[in-house]
């Protein structure tokens, strides 16, 4: 299929993705009182680039040939692009309804509504797998095998080392200085660590479900791993534009981080490994290094950071993720994952998927 045929048959999904990218950027600009038109156009450009790059680096599979059904594939399942759109619309709908319910009942205070989002993502993931894909929840990246703890702990160790290196370099050259937060006893430290552990664990797992979970895996089935990684990594970066003090470098770094975590999923075909890296990166960066995480700085930290050096290095108020140190570390990690064949699935991924689908397919 050439590019013109691809556009003529899949323009609804392309348009949805690009407009969504534009609106995410514009919403982020509106929150920061920046030029919404400029950022909307920037989001569209990123969206066009992602779609075009995904096509260029992948040869689309035969089931996307022009003569085939636009809605269903050869096995009579809904095509991946439509399932991604269904997933996103379902998440937005469920979140809207849950926020209304929370507001009416008063169970959740308004400032905490964003905690509901990833619960809604989990609910929609389960529903999509059960009623659209006819698969069990474990198939989205939580298989039962004997190396779950090993994958998670290896990911946690890698993530901690990576952000630890970034912080150590910045401290060694005097770009940042850390001073022990006064008035902290053992009990307060334990409490703050526990809260940070729960907070960053919850949001790391939630982001993995969104960006490496159902929609990412559905895209892999449709346009291949490289195209899916590009699309979801670009979207991952654009969503983080809504964070305080985000800018171009932080957005590009977040896109690289999206690719890094996507490759981690592809190496193991589970979410344990990327979740461990994501979780450790945020936890170590916030609690132990006491630096902002994607523009968010809490007081549940061991130290108080002062004397920030050049913003291009430290990331300023956004944190290390807007500095070139993070760029270098993540690029090295991506290259390492691509060339190292020792990290691989600990279970038979293909057989597991076939077995689940066979069990769930009517008449099998």
What does this structure look like?
The chain is mostly helical. The chain has a domain at 147-347. Helices cover 67% and strands 2% of the residues. It contains twelve helices and two strands; from the N terminus they run αααααβααααβααα. The protein has a two-stranded antiparallel sheet with strand order 1-2. Mean pLDDT is 83; it is low at 57-67 and 357-364.
Topology, pairings included?
Layout: H1 3-31, H2 36-57, H3 80-105, H4 114-133, H5 148-172, E1 177-180, H6 186-211, H7 214-239, H8 248-268, H9 272-288, E2 303-306, H10 311-314, H11 324-339, H12 349-360
Antiparallel strand pairs: 1-2
Helix pairs in contact: 1-2, 2-7, 3-4, 3-7, 4-6, 5-9, 5-11, 6-9, 7-8, 8-9, 8-11
Relevant terms:
single chain; 364 residues; mainly alpha; two-stranded antiparallel ribbon; 2 strands
Average pLDDT, all residues: 83
How many beta-strand elements? 2
Total helices: the number is 12
Please provide the ordered H/E string of secondary-structure elements: HHHHHEHHHHEHHH
Oligomer type: single chain
**Largest sheet data:** 2 strands, antiparallel
C-alpha termini separation:
33 Å
Helix-strand makeup class: mainly alpha
* Rg, nearest Å: 21 Å
Low-pLDDT parts are 57-67, 357-364
Strand order of the largest sheet: 1-2
As a percent range, the share of strand residues is: under 5%
> Approximately how much helix is present in the residues?
55-70%
Shape: globular
């Amino acid at each position: 299929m050439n590019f013109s045929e691809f556009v003529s048959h899949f323009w609804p999904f392309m348009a949805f993705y690009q407009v969504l990218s534009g609106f995410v950027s514009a919403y982020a600009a509106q929150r920061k009182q920046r030029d919404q038109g400029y950022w909307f156009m920037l989001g569209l450009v990123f969206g066009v680039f992602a779609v075009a790059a995904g096509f260029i680096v992948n040869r689309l599979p035969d089931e996307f040939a022009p003569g085939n059904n636009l809605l269903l594939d050869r096995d009579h399942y809904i095509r991946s692009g439509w399932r991604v759109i269904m997933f996103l619309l379902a998440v937005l709908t469920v979140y809207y309804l849950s926020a209304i319910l929370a507001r009416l009942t008063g169970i959740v205070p308004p400032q905490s509504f964003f905690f509901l989002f990833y619960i809604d993502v989990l609910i929609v993931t389960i529903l999509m797998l059960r009623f659209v894909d006819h698969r069990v929840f474990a198939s989205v990246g939580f298989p039962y095998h004997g190396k779950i703890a090993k994958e998670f702990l290896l990911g946690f160790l890698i993530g901690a080392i990576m952000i630890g290196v970034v912080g150590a370099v910045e401290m060694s050259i005097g770009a940042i200085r850390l001073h022990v937060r006064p008035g902290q006893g053992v009990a307060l430290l334990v409490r703050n660590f526990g809260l940070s552990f729960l907070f960053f664990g919850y949001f790391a797992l939630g982001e993995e479900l969104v960006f490496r979970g159902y929609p990412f895996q559905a895209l892999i089935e449709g346009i291949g791993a490289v195209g899916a990684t590009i699309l979801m990594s670009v979207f991952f970066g654009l969503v983080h534009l809504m964070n305080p003090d985000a800018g171009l470098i932080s957005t590009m770094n977040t896109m690289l981080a999206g690719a890094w975590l996507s490759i981690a999923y592809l190496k193991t075909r589970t979410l344990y490994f990327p979740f461990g890296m994501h979780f450790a990166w945020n936890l170590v960066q916030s609690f132990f290094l006491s630096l902002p995480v994607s523009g968010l700085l809490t007081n549940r930290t061991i130290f108080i950071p002062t004397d920030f050096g050049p913003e291009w290095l430290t990331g300023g108020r956004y944190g290390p993720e807007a500095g070139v140190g993070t760029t270098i570390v993540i690029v090295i990690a991506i290259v390492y994952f691509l060339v190292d064949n020792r990290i691989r699935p600990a279970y038979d991924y293909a057989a597991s998927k076939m077995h689940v689908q066979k069990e769930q397919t009517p008449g099998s």
